C-alpha cells in the first residue's frame, strides 16, 4: 500500500512538471516601441517607454510552445519631442479613462519559420482581435519578439488628433514597430 502511495505521488509530481509553464518577464528598459504616421503637414514619430508584461511557454526549450502573454503600455509614456503633440495624443487615446494599452496574446501559429500571433488589443476602451506577423528569437534565457503592425485609429473609435483649428490633422493609419525582450523568470518557474 505504501509503495502504491509513493508511486501515485511520483506520478502527480511528474505530471505537474510536464504541465508546468515557464514564465518570461518583460524587460522594459530593453524594449523599443516606435509609433509613426503622417499628417497634413509632416511625418511624425513617438516612442513608448513604460511597459510591463510576460509570456509563458509550455516547454522552456521550445519557442513553438509559446502559449500566452500580456503586455501593458502606459499611455502617458508615449512621447514625442513636441509637448502639444503629446497632449493631443493622450486626449485622443482617452488616457484619463483608459491609462493603459493592453495586448493579450491568445495564440501563436507556427508555420515553418513564420509566426503569427493572435492578439486581443485594447486601446482607448475598444477591444479588437488581430493577427500579427512576428519574429521570435530565443537565446540564453531571453526571448525577443519583434514586428511591425499597421493600425487604423478609427478601428478603435479614436478620432485622429488635430491642431490649429483642424489645419493640421493626423492620418488615420499608424505604424507600430516593436521589439519586446523577455527574460526567463526562474523564481516563477519553480
Description:
There is one protein chain. With 190 residues, this protein is mostly beta strands. Helices cover 15% and strands 52% of the residues. The protein contains two helices and 13 strands, in the order αββββββαβββββββ. The strands form two sheets. An eight-stranded antiparallel beta barrel has the order 1-4-5-7-8-9-10-13. The protein has a two-stranded antiparallel ribbon with strand order 11-12. The two termini are 30 Å apart.
Tally of separate helices? 2
Shape: elongated
Provide the structure class: mainly beta
Element-by-element helix/strand order:
HEEEEEEHEEEEEEE
* Assembly state (oligomeric): single chain
Largest sheet: 8 strands, antiparallel, barrel
Low-confidence stretches: 3-19
Strand order of the largest sheet: 1-4-5-7-8-9-10-13
- The helix content is 10-25%
The radius of gyration over CA amounts to 21 Å
What is the strand content? Answer: over 45%
The span between the termini is 30 Å
Mean pLDDT: 83
DSSP E strands, number: 13
Keyphrases for this structure?
190 residues; mainly beta; eight-stranded antiparallel β-barrel; two-stranded antiparallel sheet; 15% helix; 52% strand
Short description:
The protein is mainly beta and 190 residues long. Helices cover 15% and strands 52% of the residues.
List the helices and strands and how they pair.
Elements: H1 2-19, E1 22-26, E2 32-38, E3 43-48, E4 51-57, E5 66-74, E6 78-79, H2 83-92, E7 100-111, E8 114-123, E9 126-139, E10 142-152, E11 162-163, E12 168-169, E13 173-184
Antiparallel strand pairs: 1-4, 1-13, 2-3, 2-13, 3-6, 4-5, 5-7, 7-8, 8-9, 9-10, 10-13, 11-12
Amino acid at each position: 500500500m505504501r509503495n502504491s502511495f509513493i508511486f501515485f505521488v511520483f506520478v502527480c509530481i511528474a505530471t505537474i512538471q510536464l504541465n508546468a509553464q515557464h514564465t518570461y518577464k518583460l524587460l522594459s528598459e530593453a524594449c523599443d516601441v516606435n509609433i509613426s504616421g503622417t499628417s497634413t503637414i509632416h511625418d511624425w514619430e513617438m516612442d513608448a517607454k513604460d511597459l510591463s508584461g510576460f509570456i509563458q511557454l509550455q516547454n522552456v526549450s521550445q519557442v513553438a510552445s509559446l502559449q500566452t502573454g500580456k503586455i501593458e503600455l502606459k499611455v502617458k509614456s508615449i512621447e514625442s519631442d513636441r509637448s502639444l503633440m503629446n497632449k493631443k495624443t493622450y486626449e485622443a487615446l482617452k488616457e484619463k479613462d483608459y491609462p493603459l494599452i493592453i495586448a493579450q496574446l491568445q495564440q501563436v501559429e507556427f508555420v515553418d519559420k513564420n509566426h503569427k500571433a493572435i492578439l486581443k488589443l485594447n486601446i482607448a476602451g475598444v477591444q479588437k482581435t488581430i493577427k500579427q506577423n512576428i519574429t521570435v528569437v530565443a537565446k540564453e534565457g531571453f526571448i525577443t519578439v519583434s514586428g511591425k503592425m499597421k493600425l487604423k485609429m478609427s478601428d478603435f473609435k479614436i478620432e485622429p488628433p488635430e491642431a490649429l483649428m483642424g489645419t493640421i490633422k493626423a492620418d488615420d493609419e499608424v505604424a507600430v514597430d516593436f521589439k519586446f525582450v523577455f527574460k526567463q523568470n526562474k523564481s516563477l518557474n519553480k
